[in-house]
Design a protein that fits this description.
The complex is a heterodimer of chains A (about 400) and B (about 190).
Chain A lengths: L1 E5 H11 L4 E4 L6 H12 L6 E4 L3 H13 L4 E5 L1 H16 L5 E6 L13 H5 L6 E4 L3 H18 L3 E6 L7 E5 L3 H7 L23 H33 L7 E5 L5 E5 L3 H11 L8 E5 L1 E3 L3 H7 L5 E6 L9 H10 L7 E6 L11 H8 L8 E3 L13
Parallel strand pairs in A: 2-3, 2-4, 4-5, 5-7, 6-7, 10-11, 10-13, 13-14, 14-15
Antiparallel strand pairs in A: 1-8, 6-12, 9-11
Chain B lengths: L1 E8 L4 H14 L3 E7 L8 E9 L14 E4 L19 E5 L4 H8 L2 E5 L1 H9 L5 H12 L4 H11 L2 H15 L14
Parallel strand pairs in B: 1-4, 4-5, 5-6
Antiparallel strand pairs in B: 1-3, 2-3
């Protein structure tokens, strides 16, 4: 049934539908409402879960690592500094290939302190070996959360569900939550092939000498590449089951014949779509690429989606100082050896919660015909606020 | 699409007001979106919240820059520069204040309705949370969504005595403004 729900509340309920055995989390803005709601569901007896209140994100990640390794379905959520404090454990979780689900309520990283949205936090652990899926709206966040438990289990890889802090977590909108019986039928009980079991003792995450480390990393990379098909297939199954899909790896909408494309990840996508709908005839239409799977990176899907484009504008909601855009750099790398590949125009937008208005669509489109437009920019930085020498 | 901006102070239920208005629209069969914009998360600090309602799903995630309506939860915020920024021509503002409507209308050059929402809230629910009374008066004046939809939204949030008191407050506050006085929609 469709209900008007706050994003965080819907995520908590979606997690509850997946019946995790263990939830451990430490509150941090803008993730707080997710774990508050989970804690309430447990306290009210609506969710039969061991809820472990921990003293830090390092502990939260450690608790769910142990729980999942011992054969429990486990979940955690965090944001920003919380992701950074977890970082060491996140690499451990991924390296041990533990099936876990974590929500990241994407938020900027200090300093300067910002509680507002951008993607710097999940980008900081981009290379940890977690699957990273981005939700464009709260329905996708809910559906992706449930899918994530299946993906984690089938790939034996941890899955990070990224949703824009405040912009999604604190937005109330109509959201469809599946029935418990439906989720019970769709999501099999938790299993982990290398479960810690006193009857069949084994070690996880032990010392690996140089004679095997390269093979471990090779296999991890191969497992991530294999996960591409799993992510796509599970979204297809979800579509057959619920009638809704989240866009698989990379969804293409907008004008298929357009020569200009715009690629965005997360909640920015809806604003771009609306901007295109309302733009004047002079602005022109674009092919819109919604990148849902950021890790593993859907290189083949991107090459196909970019076919026939002359220009591709890539929006980053984070920056790699000294390089520029992160998604933009990767998109350029993937398309580098494609004959006739589009020219990449990379712009960072909405850093630290800077509001992205719908006029951004026309503003971005206008850069294509501007010979002076830089290949990378912090697009919405206000020159008036910069030191003259930084402009 | 109709866009609304709510101004209040931390602790006054401004985010709740946005959620209530959006949920009211939802119960009236509309699509909706409501979200806050926090500055300092503390009591007394100015808080802004945004609402959109439409027949169609809402994909836009930007803050509301050109609202059709302003809902001001605290009369002292009328002193803030830019409180009416972007208000559409023909739009209206409803304010929790003891000042007369005419005075606000004249000062800001727009339609204005004053509601003694704090007073009514203290009496009905024992707390100075003006959101329910303001929304009831707003719906009564605009006729945008049925009052029953607001009551349905309240039922999603409250139970028991607090629900009854809020529903009583809706009934009382709705009567304090002339019904459908803003019936013709704000200029889209």
């Amino acid at each position: 049934m469709l209900k008007a729900l706050e994003g965080s509340q819907a995520i908590a309920r979606a997690v509850a539908l997946c019946r995790p055995d263990v939830v451990a989390a430490y509150p941090i803005t803008p993730q707080t409402h997710i774990v508050e709601n989970l804690s309430r569901l447990v306290a009210d007896g609506e969710m039969h879960t061991e809820f472990v209140s921990v003293e830090s994100e390092f502990s939260a990640a450690s608790v769910v690592l142990g729980a999942a390794a011992a054969g429990s379905r486990a979940y955690t959520a965090t944001a920003s500094q919380g992701v950074l404090l977890m970082a060491e454990v996140l690499f451990n979780i991924a390296g041990m290939r533990i099936p876990l689900v974590m929500t990241v309520a994407n938020r900027a990283v200090s300093a300067p302190l910002s509680i507002w949205n951008d993607h710097s936090d999940s980008m900081a652990v981009r290379d940890s070996g977690w699957i990273q899926l981005h939700a464009a709206d709260n329905q996708e966040a809910v559906d992706t959360t449930i899918q994530a438990f299946r993906i984690a289990q089938e790939t034996e890889l941890p899955v990070m569900v990224c949703m824009d802090g405040f912009i999604l977590t604190h937005t109330l909108e109509p959201i469809e939550l599946p029935a418990q019986s439906a989720v019970d039928g769709w999501l099999p009980p938790y299993q982990f092939s290398r479960k810690l079991d006193p009857g069949d003792p084994k070690s996880l995450g032990t010392l690996v000498a140089p004679d095997f480390f390269a093979e471990v990393r090779h296999s991890h990379h191969a497992a991530m590449i294999k996960a591409l098909d799993v992510i796509e297939e599970i979204d297809r199954e979800w579509h057959a089951f619920t009638g809704r899909r989240c866009g698989g790896l990379l969804e293409v909408t907008g004008d298929p014949d357009a020569k200009i494309g715009i690629l965005a990840m997360g909640s920015t996508f809806g604003t771009i779509e609306t901007g295109m709908e309302h733009a004047g005839p002079d602005t022109g239409s674009a092919r819109l690429l919604k990148l849902r799977a950021y890790r593993p990176f859907p290189a083949e899907a991107l090459r196909k989606a970019a076919e026939g484009l002359d220009h591709l504008i890539v929006i980053d909601r984070a920056i790699s100082p000294g390089m520029g855009g992160i998604v933009g750099t990767e998109v350029a790398a993937v398309l580098a050896d494609v004959p006739g590949a589009p020219r990449i125009h990379n712009h960072a937008l909405g850093l630290g919660g800077r509001d992205i208005p719908e006029t951004i669509y026309a503003d971005l489109m206008a850069t294509i015909s501007d010979p002076d437009a830089p290949a990378f920019s912090v697009f919405d930085a206000d020159p008036e606020k910069l030191d003259p020498e930084d402009r | 699409m109709i866009e609304y901006r709510i101004h209040g102070r931390g602790g006054q239920g401004s985010v709740a007001a946005a959620y209530l208005l959006a949920t009211t629209a939802f119960h009236a069969g509309q699509m909706c979106q409501a979200f806050p914009s926090f500055g300092a998360e503390r009591r007394g600090a100015p808080v802004t919240a945004f609402v959109r309602t439409d027949e169609k799903p809402i994909r836009l995630r930007a803050q509301v820059r050109a609202p059709h309506y302003l809902i001001i939860q605290d009369g002292t915020l009328l002193q803030d520069a830019g409180i009416t920024a972007g208000l559409r021509p023909g739009g209206g503002m409803i304010v929790n204040t003891t000042l007369p409507s005419e005075e606000i209308a004249e000062r800001f050059g727009c339609r204005a309705l004053s509601v003694r929402a704090t007073e009514m809230a203290v009496e009905a629910i024992g707390r100075p949370i003006p959101n329910t009374a303001l929304l009831a008066a707003f719906l009564s004046a605009t006729g945008l969504f049925p009052i029953d939809s607001l009551n349905a939204a309240l039922r999603d949030r409250f139970t028991g005595d607090m629900l009854e008191r809020n529903i009583g407050l809706v009934d009382q506050a709705a009567k304090t403004v002339e019904r459908d006085i803003w019936k013709e929609p704000a200029n889209a």
